[in-house]
Amino acid sequence: MTATFARPSDYVIAASAAVLLHAVLLAAFVVGMVFVIRSEALRKARKPAPRVVTLEIRPEYFRRPEAAPEAPAAAGEKRFQRTDPSQESAERPKDARFIGERDTRAASERTPDANAPEVPSQDGREPRHPDDLDTIDSRFEEGEVPAVPMQAAPAGELPGVSELPQPVEEEVKGVAGEDREDRIGSPKETLLKTANEVPVPERKGEGDGRDKEMRPKESKASSPPEAANVPGGAPGKVREPVEEQPKQPGFRSEVRKTRLQGSIRRRGVSSLDVENSPLGRYQAKLGRAVENEWQKNCIRYRDHITPGLLTIRFLVDEKGNISGLRFLDSVEAGEIQKGFTLKSIQNAAIPAMPKSVRDSLNGDPLEMVYNFFF
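RE: above sequence
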């Protein structure tokens, strides 16, 4: 029988290997713990990523959208609401939510719904945003119409949607039986259709292409009084030349009522409770001034217009001066449209604020937000 004994060197090697293995395992454990602790600390110290909110605004050109959502009114501030003479009420509304240039009382044209919001019930186009409460249905003609004072226009909405000014019915002597459509047509065509001689004033810058020497000389003796050609004219009384009434471009846009289902039970012309106030009347004048300039520019630059919208904010001081013009939104509108829209506001004949308006604003400028739709 043979006995085998381990040498002392074998014990040393085994012990060293065991110690080294435990040291490696301990080091790995320590490193892992340090990594976990640091990761947790970094996670707590890191700020959460901000939430991204995307607001998508889609202008609908074919139904004349009223604009991007308007800036919310301050607490207690009443919004401007455009009105129509057909809505005017002799009785002042109580606790009116809106201001304007005439008193109107809320009424519905359709059957109300007791569970609906407190708005009129009426037919119309689809609403474009929650505050789209148009109660006026007015269509505009294309072309030229006699220049008359413009009707009320909105001061916080797209200005391209005001009322069509009604043409003034003129009584033109010597053109009996002529309808309004003929009167607003071309002066030359009108004169060719009638046997009466009506003097047509020569427009500045236009001539008949002949020198002064070649033009026929007028003679008082050879010219019979014009009253002789006028039915019912006084004998011997010479009629004064009728100057052509100045004309302005016809409006290219239109406004339609918003389709609403409300709880207002009073029947009548669809309207809201609007209070006639100095500020409401001033905003209506301001809107008409801007609208007039903008419509003219739309005619001048019609070849450069593309469907879109512009939302512009500006300030009006007590003298009617404009400042702080700034674009709040622009959708599909070209640079030319931006340029002439800004010019429309700057060149508008904005009146100075009446004292009652200045007092209501406590000397502060009036902030306006207009939406222009193309």
